[in-house]
Amino acid sequence: MSNSTLVFLKSCETRLYVIISQRTCVDPQTVKKMLMLQVSRCINFDFRHTMIHGAPGTLLGFASGARPGLPFRRCPWLLGVRKALCSQPASTYRRCPPSSRELLHLGLKQPAPCLIHPSYRTFSQGPKNPTPGYTLRTRLVVTLLFGGGILATWWYVYAEKQQKMQMQRMEQLKKVALGHGCFSLLDHTGQRRTKADFLGRWVLMYFGFTHCPDICPDELEKLTNVVKALDEEAGLPSVQPLFITVDPERDDVAAMARYVKDFHPRLVGLTGTPEEVREASQDYRVYYSKGPKDEDNDYIVDHTILIYLINPDGLFLDYYNRTVSDMQMLQSIRNHMKAYMKMSPK
């Protein structure tokens, strides 16, 4: 074999070593050992004949002008190397860094190392030693305690604010010239009653008449429900309901007795002469007016529709019109009672 053939064979060996390492990412030492073992088998094979025939093209990095596949047909050991090195799927390897290709074009003085190993996809199982922290139960307890503290604080501030507003309202109502007089009327049993007879007790007072078709019964029914609800609450004083007529001409003692028995058993009906009724009505600024009579000699009395709350000192505290429900009225009276007991502890 000529010297030129040996030089060319050595050059092919170097090029083949670099290209196979670059394309397959196999350990470079393994490729070199395989080449050293197999080159001796083809020492008499003229590679120059392979490289100079055929259509232009390259095969595994051979010089241009070689016909694809010809070296493997002429030299079976190259086909064996190709099958051995490419037996694993290409998807299991990573590409070599571009520096290997750059060195190839620069003369292959120092081939770039290719130490890339097959990559496998795995799933994270979390840290082996998780960072210690608070458990879910501890976080839940802390959250509940924190939320409960905020709620309790809000409720305390709200209650204090409501009580302060209630006391301010009581002070303002005391300045109103309402209910400062002293009425004297007959109850439904015929006894004379005055304002002084009800001192020391909470009073709910309503002005109406017994021939009222709907409004008066509804308001007295609401008043009765509130009084019953207050009686059932422990720690609160009882309330005395009063019904004062604005139609003294028809509502005598007997008529009042028949009417009040349909409501609360403690309800007291009060009547009197037209002058006495007018005086009591004016003291609480209650307006009333008798309407025209019909063919049956019946008439309707137009009057102020209010329920008055009187404290144990006989002073007017609050009033409730038709738009106030029995539950709203109950809550208002409860607040008034609690505020009064704080202001006058006995």
What does this structure look like?
- Its main location: mitochondrion.
- It is a single-pass membrane protein.
- Keywords: Copper, Disulfide bond, Membrane, Metal-binding, Transmembrane, Transmembrane helix.
- This protein has 346 residues and is α+β, with helices and mostly antiparallel strands.
- The protein has two domains: 3-105, no CATH class; 174-343, Glutaredoxin, CATH 3.40.30.10.
- Helix content is 45%, strand content 12%.
- The chain has eleven helices and nine strands.
- The strands form two sheets. A seven-stranded mixed sheet has the order 2-1-5-4-3-8-9. Strands 6-7 form a two-stranded antiparallel sheet.
- Strand 8 and strand 9 form a beta hairpin.
- The longest helix has 39 residues, at 136-174.
- The protein is rod-shaped and about 155 Å long.
- The model is unreliable at 43-74, 90-96 and 102-117 (pLDDT under 50).
